[in-house]
Design a protein that fits this description.
This protein is of the alpha/beta class. It has one domain: Alpha/Beta hydrolase fold, catalytic domain (Rossmann fold). It is built from eleven helices and eight strands. Strands 1-2-4-3-5-6-7-8 form an eight-stranded mixed sheet, sandwiched between helices. The longest helix is centred in the middle third of the chain and has 16 residues. About 40% of the residues lie in helices and about 15% in strands. Keywords: Hydrolase. One of its GO terms (molecular function) is hydrolase activity.
């Protein structure tokens, strides 16, 4: 069996130019030699980066016979860090879906034909970004698979993120995260401050995603420490064609806790809907 890490392409960087400033995004292509294959775009979790995915994107791309695009959002990994004084707004996930991801696709010259065949694979915050992208750009993807996405804020979510802050400031958690981010405080406090903003308690995208038309697979672990199964149930109520997978003995990272089950579910889902 091929080592998943062995075929990962060298990390590259691209500049995204905005109205106020530009940011540098680190990205990697997986299986770039498959020039005619569909692309799977991987959207990481709230403390994630290219490095924190480890070998799973390569494993899934090999299973799907597709190319992969993995990148670190601004503030994460080796991408441009968040300024120390910068506080992300309540709409920070919308901005990633509606501004940053489309700008990255433009910068990498991924055209309309390729986007129409593109699959989004998002975990946690990345899953939410995938849902918001599918709502905003219905013609610019083939479908999406989301792992432990957030639609609204639950008390257990706030409790889990508060505990994460305590761990970050009092244990070796910060040191462990340093392996995945050039500026670990940028990544952690950008995410943590946004989610613990009192205004964020009223954040809810359930009604917004009801317009999603593309195939949607939603996966969550039954032991998720950050959210209840109400998140998936709300997806099913809002998007009637959504397919749900609820995994036993699985926490907030299904691709790590139940890798085979997740890969099987995504492969079957894509095979069913692939054009």
């Amino acid at each position: 069996m091929t080592d998943p890490a062995a075929s990962i392409d060298t990390t590259r960087f691209v500049e995204l130019n905005g109205a106020a400033s530009s940011v540098r995004i680190e990205y990697q292509w997986l299986n770039p030699e498959r020039a005619d294959a569909p692309i799977a775009v991987f959207l990481h979790e709230g403390l994630g980066s290219i490095a924190l995915w480890k070998g799973w994107p390569q494993m899934l791309c090999d299973r799907l016979n597709c190319r992969g695009l993995v990148y670190s959002r601004p503030g994460y990994g080796r991408s441009t860090p968040r300024r120390a004084e910068e506080k992300w707004p309540v709409e920070f996930l919308h901005l990633q879906a509606q501004k940053v991801l489309p700008a990255l696709l433009d910068a990498l010259h991924i055209d309309a034909r390729e986007r129409a065949r593109m699959w989004l694979v998002g975990h946690s915050d990345g899953g939410t970004i995938a849902l918001l992208y599918a709502r905003a750009f219905p013609e610019s993807l083939a479908g999406l698979a989301v792992l432990a996405p957030h639609l609204f804020v639950e008390p257990m979510t706030v409790e889990g993120i508060t505990k994460a802050r305590e761990m970050y400031e009092t244990t070796s958690f910060r040191e462990k995260l340093e392996a995945y981010h050039d500026d670990v405080d940028s990544a952690f406090y950008g995410w943590n401050d946004a989610w613990l903003n009192p205004a964020f308690l009223h954040w809810d995208i359930t009604e917004q995603i009801s317009s999603i038309k593309r195939p949607l697979l939603a996966i969550q672990g039954q032991d998720d420490e950050y959210a209840s199964m109400l998140q998936l149930d709300k997806i099913a109520a809002a998007v009637g064609h959504a397919q749900l997978v609820k995994l036993p003995q699985c926490r907030h990272s299904p691709h790590r806790d139940a890798t085979d089950a997740v890969n099987d579910a995504i492969a079957a889902f894509v095979r069913t809907h692939q054009q």
